[in-house]
Design goal:
With 258 residues, this protein is mainly alpha-helical. The protein is 71% helix and 6% strand. The protein has helices at residues 6-23, 28-49, 57-76, 109-131, 133-143, 145-150, 155-181, 185-201, 207-227, 234-250, and strands spanning 85-87, 97-99, 106-108, 183-184, 251-252, 255-256. The relative contact order is 0.13.
Length: 258
């Protein structure tokens, strides 16, 4: 199921954590943890109330779009949140930087923490999917749900774990990005479009190819801003262009071969 609600869940959970930290006076890490728990609970509730009653991945994908719109509406309701277009979510290591030897720039601790977490997520998910019984069950249900049931795998126990894990990662990654890019409703939800584009590069099945697609998209955006700054809108258009190229490459006789 293509989860279009990923960015919306992350932003909603991020604003809850920001509210607890900035407005209610909670310490940073308990507020961040509570936001992640909220995201996980949303995933579990969505799987139980919506996805479980749908029998088509396409319908479930459309349902995630509906969830995205609902969560976007909830973000704008609390008046005390003020502007949702760029609230500072300051981490405990804000303003701490590491100078790059021989260079005129530095890297912030928040950026280093984000990169380290990405590598941990990548390695952890890979290990779980390849080396654990839960990961084997996830792959079996994804490949052939009917055959998985015949082998004794209970899809109703696997699916909540998948949705809870996905939504929890959405909340956590958003809060890791917020100290770098601000807690911004527009830019953070726009990352969902970029993630869908690079997921298409991986054919929705290959994590390494998805990472390659992400690096490719980043280089295209940065290269355009550096070498063709006069072309307005092109950096923002690259996700659409990349998706069109991939879809054209995998389509034969009008039938997608993903």
């Amino acid at each position: 199921v293509l989860n279009i609600a990923h960015g919306g869940v992350g932003v909603f959970a991020g604003f809850i954590a920001w509210d607890l930290n900035s407005l209610q006076g909670w310490p940073y890490f308990p507020a961040l943890g509570f936001g992640v728990v909220v995201a996980i609970l949303i995933g579990l509730a969505f799987e139980f109330l919506v996805v479980r009653r749908l029998h088509s991945p396409a319908l479930a994908t459309v349902a995630t779009l509906g969830l995205f719109l609902v969560l976007q509406g909830f973000v704008f309701i609390p008046r005390r949140w003020g502007s949702t277009w760029g609230q500072p979510f300051i981490s405990p290591v804000a303003n701490r930087q590491v100078q790059i030897p021989g260079a005129s720039y530095s890297v912030s601790y928040d950026q280093i923490i984000l990169v380290v977490h990405v590598m941990l997520f990548f390695g952890g998910i890979y290990f779980m999917l390849r080396r654990t019984r839960l990961g084997l069950a996830m792959r079996a249900v994804s490949d052939d749900a009917v055959a998985a049931r015949l082998m004794g795998i209970r899809q109703r126990l696997v699916a909540p774990v998948v949705w809870g894990l996905a939504f929890g990662l959405s909340g956590l990654t958003t809060m890791l990005l917020a100290p770098i890019t601000f807690l911004d409703n527009l830019s953070l939800t726009a990352l969902t479009l970029k993630s869908i584009a690079v997921a298409f590069v991986g054919g929705l099945v290959s994590l390494p190819l998805t990472v390659v697609g992400a690096m490719m998209l980043a280089l295209l955006e940065a290269g355009t801003e550096l070498y063709a700054p006069s072309i307005d809108g092109l950096p923002q258009a690259w996700p659409f262009i990349l998706m069109l190229i991939v879809l054209a490459a995998v389509t034969r006789n009008g039938t997608p071969k993903l």
